[in-house]
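WARN no homologs supplied; continuing
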Amino acid sequence: LDVAWDLKRKRALGEPHALLRDKVLAMLFFFTSTRTRVSFEAGMAQLGGHAQFIDSETTQISHGDTAMEIGEIIGRYTDGIAIRQCDWNFGNKYIRDVAKASRVPVLNMQDDIYHPFQILADLMTIQEKFGRDLRGKTIDVSYAYASSYQKPLSVPQSLILLMTRYGMNVRLVHPPEFALMPDIVEQAKENTRRSGGSFEMMDDFNAGFKNADRRFQVKGEVNGIMVVDDYGHHPTEILATLSAAKNGAAGRRTVVVFQPHRYSRTKELMDDFVVAFNNADVLLILDIYAASEQPIEGITAEILTENIKRYGHKDVSFIGAIETATDKISGLLREGDLVITLGAGSITRLSDEIVESIRNGKATF
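OK structure emitted
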């Protein structure tokens, strides 16, 4: 992590950091990938090396090359091998077998049990947001069925293994049928005994959000108006958050401020977004948070707003840039409202600004 922060600083300042010049990393994929492939390729390029993409279907693996042969062959030509192999009861063993035969390091880009690099990146991001000392912070690890892709256990298992080592209060929330591997759960429990944190397992999705940091985090209550900040930015997360809010805030008008995250995600999930906000009494849409993406023609927050309206939402408005949103939002509020800011981008600061604006008398009654 210290090395990662140093490299991130050097990249931001434009300082040379080609520590892997003339090195080659072979990236062997048995499963499709977006974030892992892009991040590994970008990282190798930034460090002065080359990331070699290898699809298992276009190599002799599809004709019978074994893990031992792959370790011996690729290990002779490259300086490292990274593998994504998620087949159940096979992926982790395959990576280990390659490593036994390889003369160079072998990296795990995800298997059926672990997803180590993603979870290290998650930890780094959490520490950037909340500080290096995470003791006492609460993290909710939740997952469920997704029709588009059979999610492996590796992400939640890796999360509970790593976060429990840092003294965090870790909650594993999942449908009772979707249990994790018993030995992983026992390791997580042992980690809490050593770190001083806690580890809970529950199957009530809404209860898991209670007091979690950046999941339904109460930022303040002023003049009877409660302001909550939530990280939810995927339609499934939004549905769960607003359902919990509706059930737990009887009698309050729910005012939701949503910042769409990335043009590509907005495009891909447009049909899901239009029905995700039905439990919001008032919905206010900000500009899309680009996260370094270039705009996509025909994908804007205004179009998202119109589509949500077309699907029957009775009070949805586009309010534009986040920099000018606070006064617009405060002017719409009334006593008893529950305000929820939703998104994974810069919107988290908006909740604090809304609380301060209400204190300064900007809300109308």
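Residues 73 and 104 are 11 Å apart (CA to CA).
OK
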